[in-house]
Design a protein that fits this description.
The complex is a heterodimer of chains A (177) and B (142). Chain A is mainly α and 177 residues long. Chain A has 9 helices and no strands. Among the domains of chain B are: 3-50, no CATH class; 69-117, no CATH class. In chain B, helix 1 (3-15) packs across helix 2 (20-32) and helix 1 (3-15) packs parallel to helix 3 (36-50). The chains are: A mainly alpha (177), B mainly alpha (142).
């Protein structure tokens, strides 16, 4: 019999590692999608993915089920990915000038569509990046995006609109649209 | 409605439902602005092509790796607790040994009870004279 997320959370709270493992298996795809969209399929992405579930495990006692497990996990994934982006910029700025640090290396001719999308999304800035990742790349509804990020719907819509215009200009030549 | 307003409305329609009146305004704008339909179609295509279609994953054994890290984290915390209390344990042992040494030095006879401080320090024996003191008697210089 398939157990609900809430049942697995309750069992995990009582120290059942198998139940927590089941939660990880169930939600790995969604978390991986968000983390990869934010950071790319890099070695740090898996570390961040592990950290997401470890943070969730450590916060199990505080988790009262007001929001869905997936919403909670995606929120942690977005926050940890944004932290990783900041860390990356700090690392780069140690070796490069400020303006170079903010520039993400551009894909080359051999890069596929996904690389170009990632490149342009990364250049949008963190507040746009999280909205674009959830709504445009991962396909969450506008309402779900607002709930996960804890921002009003209007904010999500205005960020999407600005990002959409920028991306259309930048990606038109690569997407052949 | 000019072309920019129509573009903004179209982008909004990709993320939320627009009213019937707005839909009609958009249709009218499309009729009156050449090339607008093509621009709006680019927005729609961009959206469609950006959506992730593959199933993302962190690779094999990801769940087991998470469980292993949680278990090693627990061990780490246990070690930290033991380390935290180790200095207090050493201090407690030091105090215990010092007390034993003091008891041995001052004990009249060395046995387990006196060394562990279980013997009563002083008792008044029955045949010892007890000084009587009459509280009612006034104090004099005599």
């Amino acid at each position: 019999m398939v157990q609900t997320d809430e049942e697995l959370v309750e069992r995990s709270k009582q120290g059942d590692a198998q139940a927590f493992k089941e939660l990880v298996v169930r939600h790995e795809g969604k978390v991986a999608g968000v983390v990869h969209s934010m950071l790319g399929a890099t070695p740090e992405a898996e570390d961040v993915g592990q950290d997401v579930f470890i943070r969730f495990y450590q916060a199990l006692d505080k988790f009262k089920g007001e929001s869905a497990v997936s919403t909670y996990l995606i929120r942690i994934a977005i926050n940890l990915s944004l932290n990783e982006i900041k860390r990356r910029k700090r690392r780069f700025s140690l070796f490069a000038k400020e303006e170079e640090a903010s520039e993400v290396k551009a894909p080359d001719e051999t890069s596929d569509l996904r690389d170009w999308v990632m490149h342009e999304v990364n250049r949008l800035g963190p507040e746009f990046q999280s909205v674009v990742t959830l709504r445009m790349l991962e396909g969450y509804s506008t309402e779900e995006t607002a709930t996960i990020l804890g921002v009003p719907m209007g904010t999500v819509l205005s960020r999407l609109s600005r990002a959409q215009k920028k991306l259309k200009i930048e990606l038109s030549k690569h997407l052949e649209i | 409605m000019n072309a920019t307003e129509a573009e903004n409305l179209f982008i909004r329609s990709l993320d939320e439902d627009i009213s019937e009146a707005e839909r009609q305004q958009l249709s009218e704008a499309l009729r009156s602005h050449d090339g607008l339909a093509q621009q709006l179609e680019k927005h729609r295509t961009l959206r469609e092509r950006m959506v992730r279609k593959d199933n993302a994953s962190f690779g094999p054994y990801f769940a087991q790796k998470v469980i292993n890290r949680i278990q090693s984290l627990r061990t780490e915390i246990d070690d930290q607790i033991v380390f935290f209390f180790r200095k207090y344990q050493l201090a407690a042992i030091g105090i215990f040994v010092a007390l034993l040494a003091i008891n041995i030095l001052f004990a009249e006879q060395v046995d387990v009870a006196s060394v562990l401080g279980l013997q009563e320090a002083s008792t008044v024996s029955a045949d010892e004279d007890v000084l009587s003191f009459d509280f009612l008697q006034p104090l004099t210089n005599e």
